[in-house]
Amino acid sequence: MTRDARSERLLLADDLDRLGPDAPTLCAGWQTRDLAAHVVIRDSRPDLFVAEHLPLVRDRAKREMQRIADSDYEHLVSRVRAGAPSWNPMSWQAVDERANLLEFYVHHEDVRRAQPDWAPRQLNRALEEHLWSALRPFARIAFRRSPTGIVLVADGLGRHAARLPDARGTVVVRGPVQELVLYAFGRTEVARVDLTGDADDIAALQATRRGV
């Protein structure tokens, strides 16, 4: 079994180390220290990860995330690199690949593409195929709010109907699979994709929130 999720985690940790705690990311309001804290919480504090989405306890979760983000940065990055603790099923290889590949690919790019000198990576074919396999089932969630039909076309890999047309027509989103992943996660400003379809449909899609 591949370990692409683990590889993306380690590459992310390397960039966090290289850039330091105060570098920008594509996540609104987050510097590298905040993104590192998010990963650590996701790995080791599922209670806080869930609480971030619950209005009654959201403020407490934000305070705790800030406390973790303000902790020793070197130790924080070492926790990102180490991964989930053994009690967390995401530490198991098969679960890690299924649950974390898209997560860590996107967060790695959140750090890389927020820097002024970024350029797209050349991915190996195996990773491209793995990303495509992971993206297809996720796309139904990512585009669930879309007012249009969505067809994803990954260069050299195939096409996938992510959402059937409703009141509007269909927008075709085409590009390298890594760019489709970023687009599906809402990184519109950096995702290098081509959109074809009715101009009003494209505008409606662009204005709609994507991702989880």
From TrEMBL:
Official protein name in the record: Mycothiol-dependent maleylpyruvate isomerase metal-binding domain-containing protein
Domain of life per record: Bacteria
Taxonomy of the source species: Bacteria, Bacillati, Actinomycetota, Actinomycetes, Micrococcales
InterPro entries the UniProt entry points to: CHP03085, DinB/YfiT-like, Maleyloyr_isom
Species whose genome carries this gene: Intrasporangium chromatireducens Q5-1
